[in-house]
């Protein structure tokens, strides 16, 4: 086609109005099948699904306030979508099929382009059939740097996962829909990995201060994390700085999707090894090693300063905020009596036949109407009442919230709260990000079998 002079001029004028970045090719994030040595040496490698050829996917590291732009290219045998977990994001970029976008079909692509308002440790993962896609390896770290680099020697991202592999062939157990996992704690693995590898080692020096960015990428397992040969503080949870660093003494729990940033000093001597531990009832074992060689140049530092705060909303008068109860129901031992699935009320047995074992306030799966319809800028309290026999890690999209302590005072900012069986956790939510936001259990099998809802901010 030949352009007339007039068409050339109009096109030229239109182009001039486009933002500059539209001209730069968007970097790709290719989701595809690949292979990786997941099991220890001596075992075969494992067929996985990955971003950029490996699991975890490529580390995306930007400065606070920057944009992240990636064209997701789907070469998987299933439709997919990427969710940027913990980012207070533009709703259209949140990556939830059926709510914020259509799932990207096989061979299709989708352009994600958004600003990151907060510094901290975040992650990205598939949000389509995530029970399966995350378990096959579709996740990676998203790290947002503080405007001023903190005083540390090394910054190490540690993505923790457990894989369910065949003990002979090291292939991923493909039975994702089995009712036993769905109706109990979820899919637990039989092999722990850090950054997609079994028991990796990092080289450090005695006296060095490390920033460890822990991400629990497991489908269902709540980790109890401990330190050996390392001493330090938790400085941030779910990306958000604590007002004051919290000394690590003993184990602390990290539920699926939760993050903890630690500043730790290497106290193990040169020639020895330090480790990150998973503490179990009958002892514990190392998740990864830090081989200590040599001495840090400077003397051991004092207590670290808190990280600079992120631009989070003010939490106003909590007592005046409406309280919304969300009852977590169902699962093995407390089987659902009945619940609504869409507009249809069904008995527990019927629901189980459809693979639905859990409900939130009597509704299985994301209902038509939102759990909460919030005016932009309004403050709410949500009480998660766990009536089931299992742990649930409740996650809100697009927002962080403050966990309300036993004293009624607002505590740390989080995006995922662990609610133990029989207990209640209350949160304060300043609904300031407009859009349709998912609210679900991050035990991915629970989310798939009923524990998904949503809220709207307008
Ligand atoms: Cu980490 Cu709805 O997700
Ligand atoms: Cu759950």
UniProtKB/TrEMBL annotation:
Point out the signal peptide segment: 1-24
What keywords are assigned to this protein? Copper, Metal-binding, Oxidoreductase, Signal
- Please give the PROSITE patterns that the UniProt record associates with this protein: MULTICOPPER_OXIDASE1, MULTICOPPER_OXIDASE2, TAT
The residues covered by the Plastocyanin-like domain are: 35-147, 155-268, 356-457
Molecular function terms, GO-annotated: copper ion binding; oxidoreductase activity
Which domain of life does this protein belong to? Answer: Bacteria
Keyword NADP tagged: no
Tell me yes or no: is Ion transport among this UniProt entry's keywords: no
Under the heading PANTHER family, the entry gives:
FI03373P-RELATED (PTHR11709:SF394), MULTI-COPPER OXIDASE (PTHR11709)
* Protein's name according to its UniProt entry: Multicopper oxidase family protein
């Amino acid at each position: 086609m030949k352009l007339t002079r007039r068409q050339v001029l109009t096109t030229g004028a239109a182009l001039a109005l486009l933002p500059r970045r539209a001209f730069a090719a968007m970097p790709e994030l290719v989701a595809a099948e690949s292979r990786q040595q997941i099991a220890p040496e001596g075992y075969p490698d494992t067929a996985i699904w990955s971003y950029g050829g490996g699991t975890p996917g490529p580390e995306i590291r930007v400065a606070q306030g920057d944009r992240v732009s990636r064209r997701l290219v789907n070469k998987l045998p299933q439709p997919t979508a990427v969710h940027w977990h913990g980012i207070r994001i533009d709703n259209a970029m949140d990556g939830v099929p059926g709510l914020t976008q259509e799932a990207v079909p096989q061979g299709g692509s989708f352009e994600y382009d958004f600003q990151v308002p907060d510094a901290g440790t975040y992650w990205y993962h598939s949000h389509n059939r995530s029970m399966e896609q995350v378990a096959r390896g579709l996740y990676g770290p998203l790290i947002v740097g503080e405007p001023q680099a903190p005083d540390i020697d090394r910054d190490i991202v540690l993505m923790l996962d457990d894989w369910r592999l065949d003990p002979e062939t090291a292939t991923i157990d493909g039975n994702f829909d089995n009712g036993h996992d769905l109706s109990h704690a979820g899919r637990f693995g039989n092999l722990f990995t850090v950054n997609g590898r079994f028991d990796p080692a990092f080289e450090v020096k005695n006296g060095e201060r490390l920033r460890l960015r822990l991400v629990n990428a497991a489908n269902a397992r709540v980790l109890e994390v401990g330190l050996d040969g390392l001493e330090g503080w938790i400085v941030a949870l779910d990306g958000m700085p604590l007002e004051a660093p919290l000394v690590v003494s003993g184990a602390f729990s990290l539920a699926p999707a939760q993050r903890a940033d630690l500043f730790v000093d290497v106290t193990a001597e040169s020639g020895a090894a330090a480790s990150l531990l998973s503490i179990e009832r009958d002892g514990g074992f190392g998740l990864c090693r830090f081989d200590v060689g040599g001495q840090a140049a400077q003397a051991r530092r004092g207590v670290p300063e808190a990280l600079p705060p992120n631009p989070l909303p003010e939490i106003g008068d909590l007592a005046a905020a409406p309280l919304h109860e969300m009852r977590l129901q169902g699962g093995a031992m407390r089987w659902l009596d009945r619940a609504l699935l869409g507009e249809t009320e069904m008995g527990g047995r019927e629901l189980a036949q459809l693979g639905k074992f859990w409900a939130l306030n009597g509704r299985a799966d994301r209902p038509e109407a939102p759990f909460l319809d919030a005016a932009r800028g309004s403050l709410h309290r949500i009480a998660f009442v766990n009536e089931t026999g299992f742990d649930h890690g409740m996650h809100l999209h697009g927002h962080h919230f403050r966990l309300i302590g036993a004293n009624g005072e607002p505590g740390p900012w989080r995006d995922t709260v662990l609610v133990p069986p029989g207990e209640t956790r209350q949160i304060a939510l300043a609904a300031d990000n407009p859009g349709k936001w998912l609210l679900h259990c991050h035990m991915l099998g629970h989310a798939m079998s009923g524990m998904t809802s949503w809220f709207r901010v307008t």
